[in-house]
Known about the structure:
Largest sheet: 9 strands, mixed
Number of helices: 3
Low-confidence stretches: 1-10, 233-240
CATH class: Alpha Beta
Amino acid sequence: MFAQAGGPRMCGRLSQYRGIHDFVETLSLPEAWKNNIGEQPLGRCNVAPTTPVAVLRVDDAGPRADLVKWGWRPHWATDRAAPINARVEKVAHGPFFRLIWPNRAITPIDGWYEWVNEGGPKKQPYYIRRRDGRPALCASIGQFSGGEHDGFVIITADAQGGMVDVHDRRPVVLSPELAYEWIAAGMSNEHAEQLVLNLGEPAEVFEWYRVSTAVGNVRNQGADLIEPISEPGQQGRLTL
């Protein structure tokens, strides 16, 4: 799902079907926050790159929720598509994301999709989510200036040798406590780097299962897209 600047662009889809209040409640924000998204459930089970995605962050006025384009590139990188993710091993030090590395956010998602070649005519999509049913709080960075160049990327880490045996990268998902620390004012860049390098949720927190190939068409948005066509859990593991 999660591509990196300069690398191959992989399939990238996620789901955000709960309401923003559900996501904020999971994050346990202690103070009042500004909701620029609305009160209704987002209802999106098949979110594609370059489209607006709900993100949570903190600015000078406090916590806020906004819709921001998924994908970002610096103004000088006009020779490539805007990446949708950033590798945790390089994001803090490479020139590509230098401008936005201090601009931290949380992308709360219900789950994400990966596609696997199982030998059939089409790759088989899998849906990945937290086992406990809570939203996954993904560490992100972006440009949030209110202009046309705004966008964000999700930080990804090695998937511990192939989490779910579906792909070798996965989003850095943080616990609610660490997610709030990630976006809180005053964290040094060095501490932020160590947090996402070392403290993401382990693979055991997640489950995965096969879903319909209909998710491959972004026009399909129904809740049936996240329904399993096999049982969740370890039996979803593959040998690639």
